[in-house]
Design a protein that fits this description.
This protein is an alpha+beta fold. Helix content is about 35%, strand content about 15%. The model is unreliable at about 65-75, about 225-230 and about 345-355 (pLDDT under 50).
Length: about 625
């Protein structure tokens, strides 16, 4: 490249003789001159660089002369769109196996609750609106929302009916909260005589389900988005609308283990917790060696109003009254139902005996071809107004002891006599895996359901049932094969029985501190069952061991996996009322108040907040619950 061309390029970009006389300019000129003359930079590249530099200079000059234009996002002046919300009751079922419980531990990242999944689905579907978008808040609530002090959950006025523990399931759980409606906040009535919009739609005019449609006037969606347009436009268009199908919308994003069943609008003061008149729980178990009639007798003693502090886990920071009312109960097997109740069966019976109990044995039609089996699936159903923490699992633990013959049914009377026995004896909770919140009953609630949604839910539940049914049948097949096709030696059976008997006598002796002699009863029982051959089938061996020792090759009903690790065939039962007792309610409260020297103690603060400050008279309580029980809603 010639020196003249190089000088021409340099002068065009301000680095030649006509450029600014600065050290930076001189150094840049020398560098570029060297690159051009050596051929490392082509003339076309140099010209493109010149043009780009000139354009950048021009744009810079314009920016200096004109103020910077800020992109109008509409967030500064344009008001936030308000949405119509409706107070909705949702009924749903869930399999709690993989969840940490129903209630969410708000603010904890490790939370794995059903509620967390529910609120995540509500957020994802945009059915849960922020306080700023909530068009149905009161003036005080709007002020609180504007100050940024109201979370979405609080603005939704969420309430739940039952708070199930980790691993517990539900078929009829109910919650209530405000959710976004498909109908705009300013939607107006459509008169049949003219095409002019009428008054703004009120809650009473809206459809009560997702099937019924409503003709109304609504604003075009882009009206309020136009810059400078007033929030309330006078332009309306006639439209036929349906309410959101809340069930289908949520089920599309919820995991298969949680299914929404139905919904309906409810009154503003409806509470899923306080408006519920009855809750029904079911606990499932195999019959095994249980005496169901004895279990029904024990359940019978619990009917009516009783103090259940010895049949629950006392949470003294939240609860001070442990009286609860059990209305009905059932012990159900494939062959028979034992029904117990606290209410008279006929009007001729006295109405003033509020704690009278009734036991009724009901057959289920013609006897089945197969007799009662240890593998028959049974369940106990308990109906009450409200329940304490772990109350059902404590009740089931005691009933299983009665059913196995380890305790008499009258032990329930002793546990309910809190004056004589103010402290709870030590015993394990029944496993959570078999417990189901079956139903929540509301006197003024009529939920709506759709065929489409229930059809889809049934398909999901059928898949779940099929998976577990196949697994159950595989296990049964393995058990039957081992029972019929496997043989063991008679000498091995004798040795097994004698070892367990010896260990059992040692444990009894250690507890009673008296020598327990072997009177030969076990040996005589073995001799009576001796087989003519040296071997026998495993099924025959199991039957002999059961008859001689009274032990069975399966864990006790209701025991969890952790509890089963500490149980052996030689374990002995210690009577409930002879066991160590825990602290009484009065001792627990004294510990909270006296040992909390720091006034900011969390336990003491919770006790004062939940017990002392919220304490009401009996008349106030009655008036509150009577009012709440009248709240509800309907889908028709």
């Amino acid at each position: 490249m010639s020196t003249a061309n190089t000088d021409n390029i340099l002068s065009q970009i301000g680095l030649g003789s006509g450029g600014k006389d600065s050290s930076a300019s001189v150094d840049a000129s020398r560098v570029l001159r060297h690159l051009l003359e050596s051929g490392k930079v082509s003339m076309s590249d140099a010209k493109e660089a010149v043009q780009a530099t000139a354009a950048a200079k021009k744009q810079s000059a314009q920016c200096q002369q004109e103020p910077e234009k800020v992109k109008d996002t509409g967030s500064a002046d344009q008001p936030i769109e308000k949405h119509r919300t409706r107070h909705i009751a949702l009924q749903f079922s869930y399999d709690g196996t993989d969840y940490s419980g129903f209630a969410q531990n708000v603010g904890k990242e490790c939370d794995n609750s059903v509620e967390r999944e529910l609120f995540a689905a509500l957020e994802k579907t945009r059915l849960l609106v922020s306080p700023e978008e909530h068009g149905m808040l009161t003036e005080s609530e709007v002020e609180e929302a504007e100050n940024g002090q109201m979370p979405k959950r609080t603005a939704s006025k969420y309430s739940r009916c039952g708070r199930t523990d980790k691993g517990v399931h539900a078929n009829g759980q109910v919650v209530a909260l405000y959710l976004k409606s498909a109908f705009p906040l300013l939607a107006r009535n459509a008169g049949s005589d003219n095409d002019e919009p009428g008054d703004v739609l009120g809650e009473e005019s809206l459809p009560k389900n997702s099937l019924d449609c409503l003709e109304c006037f609504v604003q075009p969606r882009n009206n309020n988005k136009k810059k400078g347009k007033a929030a309330e436009s006078t332009t309306y268009q006639r439209k036929t609308m349906n309410e959101y199908d809340y069930c289908k919308t949520l089920n599309n994003v919820l995991p298969p283990s949680i299914r929404i069943l139905g919904w309906c609008p409810v009154s503003s003061e409806f509470s899923a917790r306080f408006s519920c008149s009855r809750r029904t729980y079911r606990y499932f178990f195999p019959r095994r060696n249980l005496n169901l009639a004895r279990m029904a007798e024990g359940l019978e003693y619990m009917m009516g109003r009783n103090d259940f502090r010895n049949l629950c886990k006392m949470n003294c920071e939240q609860v001070s009254n442990f009286e609860r009312v059990l209305v009905e109960g059932k012990v159900v097997s494939p062959q028979r139902v034992y029904s117990v109740s606290s209410t008279p069966k006929s009007r001729e019976e006295k109405d003033d005996e509020s704690n009278v109990r009734y036991l009724e044995e009901v057959g289920l039609g013609a006897p089945r071809s197969s007799p009662p089996s240890a593998r028959d699936m049974c369940h106990i159903e308990i109906v009450g107004q409200a329940f304490l923490w772990h109350q059902i699992r404590c009740i089931m633990s005691i009933l299983f002891h009665i059913g196995r013959g380890q305790e008499k049914s009258e032990v329930v009377k002793e546990l309910l006599d809190v004056k004589t026995n103010p402290a709870k004896p030590s015993y394990d909770l029944a496993s959570e895996a078999a417990l189901v919140l079956q139903d929540c009953t509301f006197g003024q609630l009529q939920l709506g359901r759709t065929v489409r949604n229930l059809w889809d839910v049934q398909k999901t539940l059928e898949q779940r049932w099929e998976k577990h049914a196949i697994a159950s049948e595989r296990a049964k097949n393995a058990l039957d094969s081992m029972k019929d096709e496997t043989e063991v030696r008679w000498a091995d059976v004798v040795d097994f029985v004698e070892q367990i008997d010896k260990e059992r006598r040692r444990k009894i002796q250690k507890r009673s501190k008296h020598l327990v002699h072997d009177d030969g009863e076990v040996k005589r029982a073995l001799a009576a069952n001796c087989t003519p051959t040296s071997t026998l089938t495993w099924g025959a061996a199991v039957e002999i061991i059961q008859n001689v020792l009274g032990v069975f090759p399966y864990p006790p009903n209701g025991s969890s996996e952790s509890q089963q690790k500490g149980l052996t065939e030689s374990s002995i039962h210690v009577p409930l009322m002879d066991r160590a007792k825990g602290t009484t309610y009065e001792e627990k409260v004294k510990s909270i108040l006296e040992n909390s020297k720091d006034k900011s103690s969390k336990r003491k603060m919770r006790y004062e907040e939940n017990i002392v400050k919220k304490r009401k008279t009996a008349e106030e309580d009655k008036a509150f619950y009577d009012h709440k029980l009248q709240q509800g809603g309907s889908s028709v």
